[in-house]
Amino acid sequence: MAAALTRPNPDMLILHGASPGERRTALLRGGVLEEAWIERPARPDGVGDILLGRVTARVPALSGVFLLLPGEESGFLPDAQGGEGLSEGSHVAVRVVRGAQGGKGPRLDRKLPKDLDLPSPLPGPPRLLQRGPAAVERLAQAFPKATLRTDSAEAVPALRALGAENVSLATGPVFGEELEDAFDSLARPEVPLPGGGRLLIHPTPALVAIDVDTGAATGRDRTAQARVNEAALA
What we know:
Helices cover 16% and strands 37% of the residues. By secondary structure, the protein is an alpha+beta fold.
């Protein structure tokens, strides 16, 4: 969700703050926070990891196959994402596109990096082949001309090696008070909307329920309620 910041910034800016046990990354475009990431290296979500898995079952009703992954974890590979034609016992390299959540294993596809040097032969125990990039690395590759500031001296040469052209080491805090508040607001289950409405977000094991409370616009003309709904959609 984008959060508007009052400080004008017409350029694209990537901010990266590293502290013991946590890394935070923000992408701002024209002063608007477009992406906000909080990562904990000790508990990675695995998104972007390249794994070697073994097909354990084909499930026609789900149009895909289940794979045994490292750590005895089970992941799902849809037929449309590369699972078609695989049979039980097949070994296959896969990419994690969604981490395990809600009691369900990772979701997978077979869109592997072009420069990936796969071991040969592939058969063997399920294992990690390549760790996925961190958020700041993905953003640096996606926006190489963006201004990038980090407080991690270790990250500077690594980001430059990825093609980032404007990397600098911050001498003070990377995240100001306004950006800290924006990160905090994104973690709250309630989002205020124009016109007195609010958006209520309720995660459950099966889904994330989103309720639009039109607030003061309830019972008024449909135009007022429509404006609250339009704000909620954005």
